[in-house]
Amino acid sequence: MASDSDAPWRLSRRQFLGTSAVLVATSAIPGYTFAQASGGAPLTPQAIAARLPQLLPLTLQINGEARRLKVDSRTTLLDALRENLHLTGTKKGCDHGQCGACTVLVNGQRINSCLSLAAMHEGDAITTIEGLGNAERLHPMQAAFLAKDGFQCGYCTPGQICSAVALLDEVKAGMPSHVSARLDGPMRLSEEEIRERMSGNLCRCSAYPNIVAAIQMAGGQA
Fold this sequence. Notes:
CATH class of the largest domain: Mainly Alpha
Number of strands: 5
CATH architecture of the largest domain: Orthogonal Bundle
CATH topology of the largest domain: DNA polymerase, domain 1
Largest sheet: 5 strands, mixed
Shape: elongated
């Protein structure tokens, strides 16, 4: 059986130090690139810029206002809202679509904005927590969360509220959930129904009982 010393990739300490010294020395030479070392053309600043992702011009309808921006085509809606448009009410939690902190409304439906590319939403009506209400004129759901103390640290609250607003619209439209007793007709906004429909929004502070109470209040059942 071959020993580790027989492995073709094994470097001695002397070889490792020598190779490292060459790499450091060549990196200090102006204009020297690994492309040159391999016989290719040098990567000039212009060549590097040409290889960078191109920015995509977009017009997004945010909270009733047309917002024009240029983003990398890989930019998520969440990052476009926070980093480009500075609408920081929408929170980045897990960035994997698992916590619901980034929930916004798109054409009236709730989505996880961290899982959706900004480029997909040209022309869509996007509503963030900033568009639901403000300190002078609260949305009924925002007022209910305050009245029922439906939060603690507040980090997940924007996503909770946006999701809850969509929940009431879904119930009003007669859309059943996994726990609905019937598939048609009016639905009762029970605690079980709310917990099922809000299961995609996590609260690490465990303010769930008060969140349920707030949604029932906003839905006219409290």
